[in-house]
C-alpha cells in the first residue's frame, strides 16, 4: 500500500518546467531517497507535497484517498511533516513551547503540562532532547531534532527531510540515522533528500531519481552501487577529480597567517594562535569536525570578522585592519561559507557578478551597464552557469549559485583563495566541477586554503592537511602521510602532532 | 472525481505580472466608488455626479488640471525622499519632520534675505532647506549606523518633536507681528518661487520636483552608488561581504532622503504659503511612504503615484465646492481610496486559482 502517491505532477515557473509529469510513490514504513542534480526539482516536488506550491497538474493521494493539499496545514492534517534546511523555530522559546506552538489545545499554556507531554513524546520516538532547554542554546543537530519531533508530535506519518545531513557533523548524522531507523520500525515513512550517495546507500530502502524535472525511475537501493546511482542522476558516468602530485617545496609562501586569534559571535575565543602558511600552487586543507572554529577562521580571512590579535600577510603585505574591499583588492579571492551571505538574492546574476568590483565598471559615478552585462554573459558561458543574466540570484539552484560565486572570484585570478565548504549541498556533477576549478587555480599558482568538514574532499584535493580542533591547529600533515584514521584521531582532539 | 462546484482560492505568486500595476488605480477607484456611494447619498448628492467632479472634472479645465500638479508637487518630493531611504533598507518614517525642518529654513532665510536678488535667494533657500532636512535626519541616521537603534521608532518620534519646535516658533519669536496669528512673517518677494503659468498656483516647485524625480531615477538605475544602495537594502550581509560600506551607504541614503524631504518643505513655503504655518503639510511626509510603496520604489512609479494622489486631492476640493457636500466627504473618500489602493497592492501578489 502506498501511503503517498503523487501522480503526473507538473509544476512550471514561467518557462521553466521544474517538475515534468512526475510520479512518486511512498510505501508505508520505508525510507525513500529522492535523488537528482541541483535544480532537478526535488525540493519543488516536496514543497508541492507539503502544500507550499500548487502543482499545475497532477493528483496527490494519501493512503489511497485523493486529497487536496493547499497549505502546510492541510499537509499536517494529512499526516505529512517537513523539515527544511532553514528551521522554523523561535529561538527564545523552549523546546516544548516550540513544539506545541500553533498546536495548543486551549488558550492557556501550562508550562509543566506541555513539558511533560513533549518529554513523553520525545521518549516514545526515541529522540533525545530536553523539553525545557531554550532553542537558542541548541546546536544545529539538536534544532533539527526539535523540528522532527515537532512534526511527529502533530501525528506525522510521513516525514520529508530536505538535505538534513548538509548541516550536520558526522556524529549528528549517525544519531539522525538511528532516529530514522527507529521511526521506520514504527511504521513511519521518510522521504530523504541528500547529495551524499553513501548516505543514500546506507539508510534508504528505495531511491527515486529526477533529472531536469523528469522522473528517471524508482529502484530498490539494495543492489545499486553509488556509481550506478550517480549515472542515473547525471545520465553518464562520473569520474571525480584527480590531483596531480607535485612538489611545492621551492614555491614561495603566498599566504602567511601568524598567531591569529579571534572571538565568535558570543564573544568567546574561537581561534587561538593559528599559524599557517600556504605556498603558491598549493592547496592547504583544513579538516575538522564542524563548529571547531572553521566559520570564524574563514570569516577572519575574508575580512568580515575582526581578529583579536595576530597577522595575516599576503605576499608580505599585512591585511589585518583592511576592509573586505581591501582584502579583495590585495588579491584574496573570498568565497563565503553560506552562499546566501555572499550574494544578494533579489539582485540579478549580472549585478551580483559585478558587486565586488563596482569601481572598475564606474566612470565618474555612473555604471557602465554594457560592460557589466558583457562581462556577465562571458562568465555565464565560461562557468556554464544555468541562468540568464537578468534572473534574480534567488531563483537559481544551489549549484548554479555556487558557480556564480566562483565565477566572481576565480575569474580575477586571485593570489590566494579562501574556500569554506565549497561543495556543500552540491550534486555530484557540480561538485566535480567546483573541485576541478580549484585544482586549476592551484596549478595556475594560487595559494588555496580549503576548509571542509568533508574528509573525502580534503583528502582528494589537499597537498597538505591541517586539522583544527577547538580553535587550534592540532596537526599539519603532508597529503601522502594523511590517512583517514590519523586525521580522525586529530579531529577528535585525542592527540596533537606538531 | 470531477466536482461541479466552482472553488476558488488565493494562491501566492512570486512574480506578479506587470500588467496588473496600472489596473490598481482603476480598480481602486471602482471599489472606492461602491464603498462610499452610501455616504454620498446620505449627504444628499448623486454619487455619479460626485465622482465626475472628483476625478474627471479636474482634468477638463485648465485651472484645476494645473491644481493637480500643484498638489502632486510635495508628494513627488516626499515620495522621492522615502524611496531613496527605503531602497537602501533604511525605513525613514520621518519625512514629515524633515519637511518642516526645510520649511523652517526657507521661512527664516526668506525673511532674512529680503534685500538679496532672487537668483541668489532662491538657490540659497533650496540648498538651505536640503541641508536642514539632512541635519534633522542626521540624528536618527547616526543612532542607526553607530548604535543600531531602530530608525522606524526614532524617525517617527522626531516628527512629534519637530511639531513642537514649529509650534514653539510660531507662538514665540516668529509670531506674525502684523496679524498676531501663529504664522511666521511673510517671506520676501525675492524668495518666492515664480509662477510657471500666470494666475495659477503652479510654480517653480513643480520643476524642482520633476528634477528630483529625474535625479532619483538616474541614481537608482545608472550609478554605482544606486546599485550599492539596493544591494544594502536587499541583503546587508551579502553587501558587506562584497566589500560595500554598509554603514556609510545607509548614512548617505538616510541623509539625502532627509534633504529631499526638506526641499518639499521649501517648496510649500516658497511656492504656496509664503509663511511657515502649523498645517503647512497635510501629512505629505506620511503620504510619501504610501507613494513610495505604490510606486514600488522606482522613480517612474513614484511620479505616477504622486500624480494620481494629486488628482484625488484636487478633486476632493472641487467636489465640496461644487456640490456643497461637506469637505470631510472628500477626505473620507480619499482615505478610503488610499486603503483600497493599498489593499489591491497587497492582493496583486496573489492569484485566484480554480481548484
Ligand atoms: N520560486 C521559484 N521561482 C522560479 N524558479 C524556481 C523557484 N523555485 C525553484 N525554481 C527553479 O526550479 C528548478 C528546480 O528547483 P529545485 O529547488 O526543486 O531543485 P532541487 O532539485 O531541490 O535542487 P538542489 O539540489 O540544488 O536543492 C530550478 O531550476 C530552480 O531554479
Ligand atoms: Mg533543493
Describe it for me?
The complex is a heterodimer of chains A (498) and B (355). Helix content of chain A is 32%, strand content 27%. With 498 residues, chain A is α/β, with parallel strands linked by helices. Chain A folds into 2 domains: 233 residues, Rossmann fold (3-Layer(aba) Sandwich); 239 residues, Rossmann fold. Chain A has a 6-stranded mixed sheet, with helices on both faces. In chain A, α13 packs parallel to α14. The radius of gyration of chain A is 24 Å and the shape is globular. By secondary structure, chain B is an all-alpha fold. Chain B folds into 2 domains: 70 residues, no CATH class; 237 residues, no CATH class. Helix content of chain B is 71%, strand content 3%. In chain B, strands 1-2 form a two-stranded antiparallel sheet. In chain B, α3 packs parallel to α7. The longest helix of chain B is centred in the middle third of the chain and has 30 residues. Chain B is globular, with a radius of gyration of 22 Å. Chain B starts with 7 loop residues before the first strand and ends with a strand. At the A-B interface, α10 and β18 of A face α8 and α9 of B. The complex binds adenosine-5'-triphosphate (ATP) and magnesium ion.
Shape category of chain A: globular
CATH class of the largest domain in chain A: Alpha Beta
Task: Evaluate the radius of gyration of chain B.
Answer: 22 Å
Helix content of chain B: over 70%
Any idea what the CATH superfamily of the largest domain in chain A is called? P-loop containing nucleotide triphosphate hydrolases
Q: Give Rg of chain A in angstroms.
A: 24 Å
Spell out the helices and strands of chain B N to C: EHHHHHHHHHHHHHE
Proportion of helical residues of chain A:
25-40%
Helical segment tally of chain B?
13
Structural class of the secondary structure composition of chain A? alpha/beta
How many distinct domains of chain B? 2
Largest interface: A-B, 36 and 27 residues
- Structural class by sheet pairing and helices of chain B: mainly alpha
Query: How many beta-strand runs of chain A?
Result: 22
Q: Please mark out the parts of chain A with pLDDT under 50 across 5 or more consecutive residues, or reply none.
A: none
Largest beta-sheet details of chain A:
6 strands, mixed
Q: Gap between N and C termini of chain A, in Å?
A: 59 Å
CATH architecture of the largest domain in chain A: 3-Layer(aba) Sandwich
CATH overall fold name of the largest domain in chain A:
Rossmann fold
| pLDDT averaged residue by residue of chain B | 88
H/I helix tally of chain A:
16
